[in-house]
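Re: calcium ion structure - here you go.
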Amino acid sequence: MNIKMSALFIVAMFSLSACNLGASQSAEDGTGPEATEAPALETQVAEPAVEATATVEHKDIPGEFPESPSGVVGDQDSSITADDNRAPSGDRFTFTRFERPFNSETMDEYYPFIDIQEGVVYMDDNWIYVAIALKSDEASRELKGRYGVEIDLDLDGGGDWLILASNPVSTDWTTDGVEAWFDANDDVGGAVAAATDEKPEFGDGYESFEFGPGVGSDPDLAWVRISSADPNIVHLAVKTDILNGSKRFLAGLWAGEDDLDPSMFDLSDHFTHEQAGAALIELNVFYPIKEISAIDNTCRMAIGFQPTGREPGLCPLPGSLAGEEQIDAGCAAANIVCRQSLTAAYSEPVCICTEP
Ligand SMILES: [Ca+2]
Ligand SMILES: [Ca+2]
Ligand SMILES: [Ca+2]
Ligand SMILES: [Ca+2]
């Protein structure tokens, strides 16, 4: 079986403009749109404040994806074991790897709209594009969750940016419901990035709210839409400005609900394994999932460079790079399962590690 999934890493030779995003704004400082002035006459009805945000003029709107992906990632399909109230594999809390599109404790409700199946990252000079394929849900056809991409700029395993979009409904690009968070004080990842620390830490996670309704110096920084070709695929676009001139990064994908909270990153540092629980019945000390539920993520793709296998959080590399070389993502060749890509006209197989 051809398991050369890593052949997809296409080095992007772009000249990126190093652009400063300006000072960040706190979510609490009330820098929303200015309130409409009070009407002179009592009989006049004040315009609702929401009107002010609706008049944002967008200059830079993302277009269609480039032809060639820069990275593809597969993820577990939990629907196959949902009737047993468990995930099939891929839920490794100690490595910040989640596969829990279920409700807490009983795990008898399965949420296809947050079960990531596959993801693709593309890049051009101006945009990083992300496609996240969720489990097809014929019943609701609603993407009711939060969908995001986490970007590690310095390849140390600690994420630096988290772009999140809530409840996308439109097949046209929109900034509605999109937020961009930055970890300015660099505490995401804790002492040992992408692995649980000895004691839970209570850092502030992604504390710097860089983009959202009325927040941020660039009203066009990040966007979302639903694929017009497939209602179970979310598209995100964020400007390459966030890379600060770099051309390489690690990218992991997220889907979730309330527990996908920027302030709680890394989730594996914020909770103990006992508190978080586990979605794998094999981990019977921790099963079922408890304080972290209704969430899914992927391992990290290397974008713009050939990974060594030592990058924290990296997807397992098949072939000669797999094994002891990899710090936390080694996967025995016998446990790598590959299939055709769901999301892209992509010729290489997409693989996952099926180890518990
Ligand atoms: Ca997963
Ligand atoms: Ca999944
Ligand atoms: Ca980092
Ligand atoms: Ca922080």
